[in-house]
C-alpha cells in the first residue's frame, strides 16, 4: 500500500514538473514572440484598421478592374500614400522656404515686424501688455527675443520632440498602408482566420463579434472624417467671410488637425487674434463666437455620426472613443469602442443567456 502511494506521488510529481516546464516553455515562446513583434504592433494595428475601412471600396474596385486583386491593392496603396506623402512634402517645402527666407533677415537685422494698431491696446485683459511687447518687437527684435529666451528654449525643445514624434508617426502610417495592401490581397483568408479565432473564444458568436468589430471601426472612421470635413468647411466659411489671407490653406490645415483629433482651434485661435487686430470689435466678437462654435461642434456630431448604422448604443461607442483616446492616443479612437462594444455584447449574452 505504501509502495503504491509512493509510486503515485512520484508520478504526480514528475507530471507536475513536466507540465510546469512545458507551460514555462510555451510562456517563454509567447514572450519572445511579443518582443520580436512589438516594434510592429502599432503599424499592424493601423494596417488592420485601414484594411477594414477601405475593404468595401476595394471589393467594388476589383469588379471594375475585372477581378485583378493585386492591381487593385497596388492602386489603393499608391492612392493612400499620395494622400499622406504629398501634403507632408508640400508642408515641408513651405517650412524650409520660410526658414530659408527668415534666417538671413534675423542674422543681418533686416527682419521687421509692423507696428500694432491702437485697437490692440483696447483688447480686454491682455491688450495693454501685448501692445507694449508688440511695439518693442517692432522696434528692437533682438531685445524682445531676449525677454522671452527661457520660453523660446522650452518651446524649441517641445517643437523638436514633436517634430520627431510626428515624423515617426508618418513613417509608421506609411508602413501601415503598405501592410494594408498585403492584407487586402489576403482578405478572404484573413476573414476565415478571424472567424476561427472568434469561434475558439466565444463559440458560435464569433462571427457576430467579428461583424460588430468591423461595423464599429468603420463607424468611427466615418465619424472622424465626417466631423473633420464639417468642422473644416465651417472654419473655411468663417475665413472667407472675414477675408483671411490663405483661407484655403488654413482650411486644409483645420481638416488635418481635426482628423488627428487636435481640432481646428489651433488654427482658429491665431486667426481670431488676427481678426481683432484688423476688424472692428463687433465683427471680431462675432468671429470669436463662430470659432468657439466650430471648435465645440464635434462634441455633438461625433456620437451621432460614429454610432450611425451600428447595433451598439451610441453611448457605448462614444465612451469607448473618449476613453480609448485618453488611454492609448489616436489608435485608441478605434480600439476603445471595439473593446467596449465586445464587452457590452458579452455582458448582454451573460445577462440574457437563454432568452435570445
N-C termini distance: 55 Å
Q: Average pLDDT, to the nearest integer?
A: 79
Determine the fraction of residues in helical runs and give it as a percent range.
over 70%
Q: Please write the string of helix (H) and strand (E) elements.
A: HHHHHHHHHHHHHHH
Q: Count the helices. How many?
A: 15
The general outline is: elongated
Low-confidence segments? none
Which structural class best describes the helix and strand composition? Answer: mainly alpha
Strand % is under 5%
- What can be said about the biggest beta sheet? none
The radius of gyration computed from the alpha-carbon positions, rounded to a whole number of angstroms, is 28 Å
Q: Please tally the β strands and state the result.
A: 0
